[in-house]
Amino acid sequence: MEKFLDYIVKAGSLDRRVIFLVIALVVILPLFFPLGLPIRPTNSSQDVYNAVEKLKAGDKALVSFEYGPSTKPEIHPMSVALLRHLFQKDVKVYITCLWPDGQFMAMEALQQVAVNQYDKEYGVDYVLLGYRPGAEAVIKGLVSNIRKVFTVDARGNFLDDIPMMKDVNQVADFDYLFSSSAGYPGTVEWVQYAADPTGVTMSTGTTSIQVNEVMPYVQSGQIVGILGGMPGAAEYESLIGQPGIGTSGMDAQSVAHLVIVAFIIFGNISFFVERRRAKKY
Amino acid sequence: MKDKQFWSVAGTIFVLFMIYWFLGHPHFVVERAVMFWAILVVGGVLIYSTRMAQRGEKIFLRSIPGLKAVEEAVGRSTEMGKPVLYVPGIMDMDQVETVAGVVVLGHVAKMTARYETSLNVPVSRAIVMKAARESCRESYLIEGRPDLFHDDMVHYLTDDQFAYAAGVNGIMLREEPAACLYMGKFYAESLLLAETGNSIGAIQIAGTASPSQIPFFVTACDYTLIGEEFFAASAYLSQEPELIGGVKGQDYLKMIAITMMVLGAVINLFHDLGWISWDILGYLTVQ
Amino acid sequence: MNGSEIFGAWVAVFLTLGIFSYLYKDNPFYKIAEHVFVGVSAGYWMAMAFWTQVQPNLFGRLWPVPEGEVSGFLMRTWYGVYNAMGWVLPSVFPAGGIDKGHGSDPHFMYLLPFALGIMMLLSVASKLSWLARMGIAYTVGMAAGLRAYAFLNSNVLGQIKGSAVSFVDMPWFSLTGVSVVNNIIILVGTVTGLLYFYFSKEHSGSFGKVTRVGIYFLMISFGASFGFAVMGRISLLIGRFTDLITYGGPTYNHASIWVLLVMIVLLAVWTFKGKEKQVG
Amino acid sequence: MFFKRQLPIAIAATIGFLTLFGWFVDEPVIKSFVDDDATQWFDILASFAMFLGALNLLKMQALKVVKQQKGWPYAALAIAGFMFSFTAGFILLGSYNVEISQYDDPAKVATVLAAEINLDQKSAENILIAMPEGDTYLIETPYFTKKGADKVVAEINAAGGMANMRATEWGSHISTRGSLFNWMFRFIFTPLSATMFALLAFFVASASFRAFKIRNFEATLLLISGIIIMLGRVPIGGHISAWFILYIVVLALGAGVNSYWKDRTYTLVAVVGGLLMVTIAGFIMGWPVDQPAIFYLPVLQDWIYNNPNVAGARAIMIGIGLGIFATSIRYILGIEKSYIGE
After folding, report:
1. Contact criterion met (CB < 8 Å) for C45 and B232
2. Chain C interface includes A25 (CB < 8 A)
3. What is the pLDDT of residues C160-193, one digit of tens each?
4. What kind of architecture, by CATH, is found in domain B65-238?
5. Looking at beta carbons, which residues of chain D come within 8 Å of A101?
6. B188 to A197: CB separation less than 8 angstroms, yes or no
7. What ipTM, to 2 d.p.?
8. Cα-flanking dihedrals φ and ψ of residue D254, to 5°?
9. Based on the domain organization, do A210 and A189 belong to the same domain?
10. Closest Cα partner for B233 from B243, B223, B221, B241?
């Protein structure tokens, strides 16, 4: 028994690189051999789906991209799934970005969904306004007058030449607001400077780490529904019936979580054994 | 009713506004009236308590364990002859947490001047570098050791979040500081820093109000100033009447918020049961 | 899949594995990738800031395309300055003025932020560092004005309203929906959590017990954030490995595999040489 | 002294006051200044701040190289990296497109086109024929250098077609696929920043093993609620039966009883009794995976996530909200002056 306890304590201070190897394998293997576990949507993802379902053809949705390559795996699947849902319902999509990288993410998502899948027309069905530095000051500017912040769109066309920009002057003219956000500026700023002051229905998709910071807004009704990280994206993909990159990552996600939980439990067992032995001597 | 001057000013503002209101309040956004009064009341409470502190009234503030640890940590670094690493967060001076981080830095700089310990402050924003450098220079001056201060004690790495985290990790691995202090606004790079600090066996004290980073600091650091404790820390360390008055003021405001919540629930219950007609939730407009 | 994409894939794989090599230990590959990142990200931020704001919204307002011929001494000198700069940097100052939809006569008021901005740039020289204070004061002042309202409105008032929970026409307890017990928990948790951050009274005696309950609620909330954080990190790793797997495919001439092998060999040699130096 | 101290404080106070009370004014002149121009100035100064950051970095790295400090070759590499992204941003466009508007004989022009878009001659010809009247055909991949594009234009003109070279306009080159800046973003900036973030997954794993310890009851609460959320929100959580969790709870209660009363018989009775009860209840109900719901991870996770978690997060949010309001008011009133180093 004593030898077994020695082994546990020694394993407690395992070299970090062994743990790195284990996690690498645990994530790679399910990518090659998918398990296909079924996905069960939580009600916060369902609320986002219902909010978009309520929109009618021709409604105007403002989608804002506030994430970059470093959080793309969590949020890009959500943006793609949301654009699919919006274009499916022929909603007019207006895109702004509060992060410089957001502009590139938006271009990629539009190329994949608007151009290749739904063959939508730029300037009539969707427009990419692009990035402007200034964080919440940009949102405040958009709430009062879009044409002060954006005189040209991301491709250099004048706003007045874009048909779908006619009689769209401020955030209040939109029927729906969605922020795919990975930090500051992001969801919190959109609630504070756009959703609350104008009352436009707002949902959001955030990185898993930011979900908790935003939950009180959901409970008090300032935000309608939230997609949390890659699981949130997978749930939304299953709701619109078009599985994408979010779903394919779920098996690796599940197995990795099991392993991390095992690490925590095992790490604490060796911690207890060590502490009880220290008390004895 | 000690502060005559405060109440007279408050009274005149109130009267003036009433006159303006009854004159038809031109150009006033009426839907936001509740917020207007909220700002005046909350601002008034804060100003009143700050003036109370400035008058030198004795204000009791409870002890915060994390702060005593800051002194121990600098002491430990002095004994081991190793530098103190101070990370003021990755955001700019327009973030209040960064400003609180610079205030706490000023105090830590006083200690490193007194104990002659070397201090290393890598920053990720040019404006923070300027503010942090001047704050350290002032602290070394106050402690009478301007000779110990050199400009590159506070140095800029990069604006980008993860290049900065990698840069700070490089410094930790090369200089092996005995104490790592993370005071400011952090995002996902907090674990990178805390994990590397853990691996070199440094005492780690963190202070941040970013709710998503606190769990990591709580689990991987020896002490964590959670949210408001971090703001109160800058009041503690600076012993400035305004800041202590501010903490006191916020305590009053918390009491007001709690009473409003409980009262709100009770009144809302009466409204739902039909005993009273006044719908409080409709009144508390969020615009 | 043209040449630049394939070459790009190889560069991407080298940089990705360079950063991952940090897990082995701080080595030259990691330092190369780290410093390329530091340099490229600075230039990237500068270009984005310039092309999305300074050129369209500042220069576009100062030197719009004039209607017809420029008349008047002031305007002629003003556009004379412009043409001089255009000669130096034709890409930034195209001939005839910058047409970004700001009308046709210059907004001279924007000379003020332009001046503050230049002063901030001049503050790079250490003895001129005080020049940046005006620009900082403006940004800090405005941020304070914006945030004072926004946080009081959405983060305090909005949350108080959310916590004034109702207890009528809902089940006593339910695991999924709204219920009386759930609402009590939310109200009690918020109140005790706030009291933990109450600094005017020592946390001892009966008040200490209340704040103890408060810290328990806070810890459950931190636990949830912890769980979400781990989930987010794993998703990002999945994203990276998916990219590496695609770049390992035949269309990119198996970039990931080759670069991985070469790096492992070089790292082994580097470590071995490192040990030899210590021994020798 | 006025410029270094009073003026900045005065600027901060006036613009802060204007912005704060600008929310309540709907008088057009003031409103348009506060909402539009003031915010535009803020955005402009924010971009200059980014410039300042980049210049400071350069100064820092240049000093390191000039003074030959340790690791200066890497600093030189950082400067090279900056030079490359500066060139891509301001000097080298890298995306010159060739546009064909008309042609007399599709076959001849198609030979040139086929070579450029590496297609066989026949399909290149079909593309030209399919081109609607008055529309133009743009060769999809842009040319890196102006010379390259001009060469192709000359060849097409020689073959009897009508083509011209259209360079992407400076400013929108950032967002056009095929420009050097876009290439830099996709193949240098993206892998670097994405991989830096992915590193954290490894650190979370090693921290889970070595740093996250149950030092006291609070840390226990944190880890248990973290584990429930982690398992409950992923598909595998649905496969863990509520009965399995029930057995673990019984064992945990047994451990609690043991450490509280420190009496072996009490612990034995508690554990064995608990296990028996659970097994009997299981048999009666036929072991359904998701019953009793309170122990079914996805449902338990949902309850924790929507109730105690929201209460805790809200307490923090209100506290921080008041803190930020207080600090902002101190700026506007000129009490807080640390942003100018006091």
Report:
1. no
2. no
3. 888 888 888 888 888 777 888 899 999 999 999 9
4. 3-Layer(aba) Sandwich (3.40)
5. 185, 189, 193
6. no
7. 0.82
8. -60, -45
9. yes
10. B243
